[in-house]
Design goal:
Blueprint (H helix, E strand, L loop, with lengths): L6 H6 L5 H11 L2 H8 L6 H11 L1 E3 L14 E3 L2 E3 L3 E3 L5 H4 L3 H12 L4 E3 L6 H7 L4 E4 L5 H14 L3 E5 L9 H6 L9 H8 L2 H15 L31 H10 L3 E7 L2 H10 L3 E5 L12 H11 L4 E5 L5 H9 L4 E4 L1 H32 L14 E3 L7
Parallel strand pairs: 4-11, 5-6, 6-7, 7-8, 8-9, 9-10, 10-11
Antiparallel strand pairs: 1-12, 2-3
Helix pairs in contact: 2-16, 6-7, 6-16, 8-12, 13-14, 15-16
C-alpha cells in the first residue's frame, strides 16, 4: 500500500467486498437505525431467499477467447453506463449519513452507473439533479389524480428524464426487527433511543449532529409536490403509497410523463405484460429488499418468466445482488442490469461520496475479472446458450 494514500483513502482499503460494509455499519450505527436498514419482513425467509436464489445457479466459463478487449459498458433506456450495476433508491439516506443523497448521486454520476433518488429522501430533488443530471427519481404516489399530476410536474420541472414508480407498497409494512430495536417513524424521543445514541457517539457527532447543524431538522422533501413533514412530525409515518393506486393511475402518468417510465416492484409476468401494453419503458423486478412480505418470491426466481413474457422490455433486477458474479447470473437469466441497495448505502454512511466510489470500484474491478474468467468480451455474451448451470438439476452421483 502506497504511503501517499491519505488516511481516508487508506481507511477504504479495509473493505474488500460489499459484505464488509455491513459489518462496519453495524458497529457505527445505533442499533435501531441499523435494524431499519438491515431489517426485513416476518422471519426473514424472503430476505434469505433473495440471496439463496443466486446459489442455485453457476456460470460455465469459455476459454481461449482472447478477452483483452472485454468491456462491461452497456445501454439502458437510451443511457450509456460503464457497467450494468446501479445504486438503488433508499429512503431517509441523509438522516443516517451526512449529505448522503448528494454523496450517492455524485459518486454514481462519476462512476457512470445508474442511480435512483427515493421520494422518501431528505434532500430536495432539485439539489440532487444538479450533481447527477442522469439520476432517476423513484416515486411513491397517492391515489389522488391531482396530487399525482402535481408530483409528476415537479419531477419534470426539476429536470429528471427517468421516472420510476414504486408499485409494491399499497399498505404500510411492518418489520419486526426494527420494531424490537426501537425504530419508529416519526422519530420519537425515548430513554431507549437516547441510550442507543449515547452508545454510538461517532455516528451522533459526525453524521446526525452534523446534519442538524448544517441543514437543520430533516424533512421528507420529495414525496409530494411540496416540502413534506419533518422526521419528528406525526404525519411522517404516513408517507408512502395508497391502497387504491392502480393501473389507471399508471395510464394517466404515461400520458403526462414525456421521459422514460419504469415500474419498480414487479414480480409477475402478467404485470410486466400489462406494463408493456400501457407503454411503460421498463420494469424493476424487486420484492423491496424483502422488507414488505415474507411470503414473496425472490426477484431472481421471478426474472426468467418476466423476460420470456416481455422479450423487448427493459428489465432490471433489484434484490440479493452482492457480487459481480451475481450480476452476471441475473443478466444471463434475462436482466438488462441490476440495482444494489443496502451495501452501497452502508458504504455511503461509512465513507460518504468516497466510500461509495470505492464500493463501486470494487464491483467494477470484480466484474472485469469475472468477465475475463468466463471468456466474456461483452456483457450480452453471458446470455449465450449453455452459459448457465442449475445446481439443483445436476445429475446425482
Amino acid at each position: 500500500m502506497s504511503s501517499s494514500l491519505t488516511p481516508r483513502r487508506r481507511d477504504q482499503q479495509r473493505y474488500l467486498n460489499l459484505d464488509d460494509y455491513s459489518a462496519a455499519a453495524r458497529r457505527l450505527l445505533p442499533r435501531a437505525l441499523y435494524a431499519y436498514v438491515s431489517g426485513s419482513a416476518g422471519d426473514g425467509t424472503a430476505l434469505a431467499a433473495n440471496r439463496d436464489a443466486f446459489k442455485q445457479w453457476a456460470l460455465v466459463p469459455r476459454q481461449l477467447r482472447g478477452v483483452g478487449s472485454r468491456s462491461a459498458t452497456t445501454q439502458l433506456l437510451g443511457q450509456h453506463f460503464d457497467m450494468p450495476i446501479g445504486v438503488s433508491a433508499f429512503g431517509a439516506a441523509a438522516v443516517l449519513g451526512y449529505n448522503a443523497d448528494i454523496a450517492m448521486a455524485a459518486a454514481a454520476y462519476s462512476a457512470k452507473v445508474p442511480y435512483q433518488l427515493s421520494a422518501n429522501s431528505i434532500t430536495p430533488m432539485e439539489e440532487v439533479i444538479k450533481v447527477n443530471p442522469e439520476a432517476w427519481f423513484a416515486a411513491y404516489l397517492p391515489d389522488d389524480a391531482t396530487l399525482i399530476s402535481n408530483v409528476v410536474e415537479r419531477v419534470k420541472s426539476a429536470g429528471f428524464k427517468t421516472l420510476v414508480i414504486t408499485v409494491d407498497v399499497p399498505v404500510a409494512a411492518r418489520r419486526e426487527p426494527e420494531t424490537r430495536a426501537g425504530y419508529a417513524m416519526p422519530f420519537k424521543a425515548s430513554a431507549r433511543l437516547g441510550l442507543d445514541m449515547l452508545c454510538h457517539p461517532r455516528w451522533v457527532l459526525s453524521r446526525f449532529g452534523r446534519t442538524l447543524l448544517r441543514r437543520g431538522i430533516p424533512h421528507i422533501e420529495n414525496v409530494t409536490h411540496q416540502r413534506g413533514p419533518s422526521i419528528f412530525a406525526s404525519s411522517a409515518g404516513s408517507v408512502g403509497g395508497a391502497a387504491n393506486f392502480n393501473w389507471d393511475n399508471i395510464r394517466a402518468i404515461r400520458a403526462q410523463w414525456p421521459g422514460k417510465l419504469l415500474l419498480k416492484g414487479i414480480l409477475s409476468d402478467r404485470d410486466a405484460v400489462m406494463a408493456q401494453e400501457i407503454g411503460v419503458d421498463g420494469v424493476i423486478v424487486s420484492n423491496h429488499g424483502a422488507r414488505l412480505s415474507d411470503a414473496a418470491i425472490a426477484p431472481l426466481e421471478a426474472l426468467p418468466s418476466i423476460r420470456a413474457a416481455c422479450p423487448e422490455l427493459t428489465v432490471l433486477l433489484d434484490g440479493g445482488v452482492r457480487r459481480a458474479g451475481d450480476a452476471l447470473k441475473a443478466i444471463a437469466l434475462g436482466a438488462d442490469g441490476v440495482m444494489i441497495g443496502r451495501p452501497l448505502f452502508y458504504a455511503t454512511i461509512l465513507g460518504g461520496q468516497r466510500g461509495l466510489a470505492h464500493a463501486l470500484q470494487l464491483l467494477s474491478t470484480e466484474l472485469d475479472r469475472e468477465m475475463g474468467f468466463h471468456g466474456l468480451l461483452n456483457i450480452s455474451e453471458v446470455r449465450q446458450q449453455d452459459r448457465l448451470y442449475h445446481r439443483a438439476r445436476a445429475p446425482s452421483g
